[in-house]
Amino acid sequence: MQFTDALGNTFNSIPKEELRIVSLVPSQTELLIDLGLEEQLVGITKFCVHPVDLRQRKEVVGGTKQLHKDKVAALNPTLILCNKEENTKEIVEDLQEIAPVWVTDIFTLDDALQTILDLGEFLDVVPIATKLVEEIQNEADSFAEFMKGKSEREVLYFIWKNPYMAVGKNTFVNDILERNNMINVLPEGSRYPEVSPESTVKPELLLLSSEPYPFAEKHQKQIEKEWGIPAMLVDGEYFSWYGSRLRNAFTYFKSLHKKSD
Fold first, then answer.
1. How far is CA 231 from CA 160, 175, 223, in A?
2. Is 100 found in the same domain as 12?
3. Under DSSP, is residue 132 helix (H, G, I), strand (E, B) or coil?
4. 217 domain residue, yes or no
5. Burial class (CB in 10 A: 0-12, 13-18, 19+), 24
6. Is 96 within a domain?
7. pTM listed for this prediction
8. Is 155 among the domain residues?
9. Cα(180)–Cα(72) distance, rounded to whole angstroms?
């Protein structure tokens, strides 16, 4: 049986006893664990922090954009899992010399749920994947009801400092913001543009993500003073991880809204 990834590449099914997976996407690494595939997972990145002790149990092959090809090759993988945004085209092409590379491409919650189902089918864990998607969809539906009648807020979602960078539209984070009735004030265009206090863009609220830059309280006070706009620290994993972490994301979003009401 053949399967197709987000780039249209085709793959033959791999018997579970032959599966040796290297995952270069932290949120998808966590997903593999929750799909019951920890035994088949042989290599991860240094950013694969969930479960917390996973890096002590699996071979770390580098980061998402800088990795050690020789370490990947030494693991004799039969499948490498990448993402179009997280990993560069050069990395994907380089790794295709070692093993088949499955690439995901995710812009919305619907994309994320379909990806879980696709991987569930390809990796022969359909029942677990289906149950997970149902749980996430139920949480998303409950959250949509919770958000009815809540007013919209114009926001900027910061991901970096020095220079300040924010999340643009046509991104997974933007889709999650919209579900929170948060309107991204950035215009269409660059997905991760630099922004500054002198910009004509003036939101009501600045969201300071915990990743990739680890914004903390000391940054919050400084940025509020610099921009003259209230700022809120948020858990970036719940806004940007598109795997099984979504199961708990909507409970977190409810707590954010209750806190700011």
1. 14, 20, 7
2. yes
3. helix
4. yes
5. buried
6. yes
7. 0.95
8. yes
9. 39
